[in-house]
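Section 5: illustrative case.
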């Protein structure tokens, strides 16, 4: 924040506080400088949270983060890398001061990271991870000549996002995750397919300008057999590496369609960034041992009416689909089960821990492959002092909803679809919604009414109808991308 914005906002806050003696000057939703409203039934925040729409009119905003000066960086799929200077009046009363396109490249589609010192920015296309030198004090178009390619040879059809996670406790270690190229991608049974896995690269070894990029297959394998692990996170206290996985669609077991409530989406643990799994033991190895099961084994969500349930519980792995030679026993013995399982098709896309590691927030993009939509929300998961979830691994209620769609029947056409999450320096949680082209801020505050700038939850507005994807358009899109819609 610059002095120019600090001073009026302090003045404003103290005037308001004097006038109302409110604990949170923004709890009433008053924010004359930002009157944006969503053009669909407004999301509903849980008690203790408020939120506000801050930016709209983007193409397909995905990964987001804050630079060292409080600038918001957004990968806007179909546009490139965009910087927002924000006017901050406290609470959720934030508005866009200036929007600057840093990189025009419509192939940048999701991944973004910033170096520890804030001076290098990373972003990814389906094929490459790039870096650019960055100066947060004067954000302007980044010089294309200064762009370097760090990782390459990742092109494949299907899932095209390449999420980037730069370790905080081991600067220079960059984790890059890749999904499958089809719903049941059988080649991912081989680790050298390079798909459905998370690998790490020591980018500090790429010292000179002439050092070539890594091939994706050069990376250390943190996990494979992960269908589409879009969200990755490092727990800031213990250094645990976690991912959220989008599991398979249209699944059958014993010739029965089980896709509505199975398999579960997954929260997977990949050991600690220092190479241990806890108890002082060594990581299962960055290699072949780290297989999480896809495309042979899946995690059980609902046990209701499940064919040949046997003694399986929620969170256990089961054999299905292509796994003709597999049994539920071999799935549980030979592959790593999730630490938690989430409702099928909720589509978790990002995970971010609080600074004290006691909670992780997860964005659920929402289902397309289910008659009654699910997801379209942001939830939190509680973690204990050992850096593990407090809920047991067979839990079906490990998530606490923070922001939800008021009427899931309207989704996906008339709902926000949360994707990227980011904390700002004030402890507010931001998220992007790709289908609506929007960015929102959320804040914890006593007595918040959970509204967005007075939009009241009844629709209204409508100026942005052009940004809305109608259900028919979404289904058409699903067909075009081969039914891989996250
Ligand atoms: C940027 O530079 C790369 C080579 O480093 C080139 O392939 C690409 O076309 C350039 N993009 C623009 C917009 O000039
Ligand atoms: C990464 O590479 C640098 C430079 O070669 C080296 O000093 C460092 O130890 C490496 N880090 C890891 C975790 O291997
Ligand atoms: C990328 O793949 C091509 C084709 O297999 C290969 O020739 C090239 O060396 C690879 N690039 C790197 C950086 O390894
Ligand atoms: C389920 O039963 C099989 C054998 O019938 C056994 O090997 C396995 O350990 C059991 N699993 C659980 C979770 O109890
Ligand atoms: C089943 O077959 C696949 C190859 O299709 C193989 O990877 C797997 O190890 C086999 N599992 C068992 C239990 O034999
Ligand atoms: C979650 O479900 C379990 C088992 O039904 C129950 O004991 C527990 O109280 C529930 N927890 C919450 C937070 O609702």
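Designed sequence:
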């Amino acid at each position: 924040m610059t002095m120019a914005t600090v001073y009026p906002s302090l003045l404003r806050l103290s005037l308001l506080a004097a006038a109302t003696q409110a604990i949170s000057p923004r709890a009433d939703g008053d924010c004359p400088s930002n009157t944006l409203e969503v053009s669909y039934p407004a999301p509903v925040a849980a008690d203790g949270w408020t939120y506000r729409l801050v930016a709209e009119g983007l193409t397909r905003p995905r990964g987001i983060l804050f630079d060292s000066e409080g600038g918001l960086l957004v990968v806007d799929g179909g546009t490139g890398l965009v910087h927002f200077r924000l006017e901050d009046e406290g609470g959720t009363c934030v508005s866009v001061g200036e929007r600057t396109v840093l990189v025009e490249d419509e192939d940048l589609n999701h991944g973004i990271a910033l170096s520890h010192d804030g001076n290098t920015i990373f972003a990814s296309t389906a094929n490459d991870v790039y870096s650019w030198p960055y100066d947060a004090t004067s954000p302007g178009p980044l010089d294309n000549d200064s762009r370097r390619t760090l990782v390459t040879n990742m092109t494949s059809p299907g899932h095209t996002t390449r999420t980037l996670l730069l370790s905080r406790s081991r600067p220079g270690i960059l984790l890059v995750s890749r999904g499958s190229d089809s719903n049941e991608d059988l080649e991912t049974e081989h680790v050298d397919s390079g798909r459905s896995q998370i690998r790490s690269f020591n980018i500090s070894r790429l010292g000179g300008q002439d050092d070539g990029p890594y091939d994706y297959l050069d990376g250390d394998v943190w996990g494979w057999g992960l269908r589409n692990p879009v969200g990755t996170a490092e727990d800031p206290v213990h250094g645990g590496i976690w991912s959220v996985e989008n599991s398979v669609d249209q699944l059958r077991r014993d010739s029965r369609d089980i896709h509505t409530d199975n398999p579960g989406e997954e929260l997977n643990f990949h050991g600690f960034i220092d190479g241990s799994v806890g108890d002082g033991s060594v990581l299962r190895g960055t290699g072949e041992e780290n297989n999480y099961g896809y495309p042979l084994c899946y995690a059980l969500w609902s046990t209701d009416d499940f064919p040949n349930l046997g003694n399986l519980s929620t969170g256990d792995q089961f054999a299905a689909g292509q796994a003709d030679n597999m049994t539920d026993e071999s799935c549980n013995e030979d592959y790593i089960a999730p630490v938690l399982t989430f409702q099928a098709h909720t589509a978790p896309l990002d995970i971010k821990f609080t600074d004290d590691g006691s909670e992780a927030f997860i964005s659920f993009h929402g289902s397309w492959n289910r008659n009654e939509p699910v997801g379209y929300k942001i939830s939190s998961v509680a973690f204990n002092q050992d850096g593990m979830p407090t809920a047991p691994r067979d839990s079906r209620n490990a998530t606490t909803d923070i922001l939800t769609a008021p009427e899931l029947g309207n989704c996906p056409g008339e709902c926000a679809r949360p994707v990227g999450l980011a904390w700002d320096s004030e402890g507010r949680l931001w998220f992007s919604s790709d289908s609506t082209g929007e960015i929102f801020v959320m804040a914890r505050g006593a007595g918040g009414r959970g509204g967005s700038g007075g939009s009241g939850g009844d629709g209204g507005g409508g100026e942005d109808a052009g940004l809305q994807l109608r259900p028919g358009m979404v289904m058409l899109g699903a067909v075009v991308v081969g039914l891989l819609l996250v």
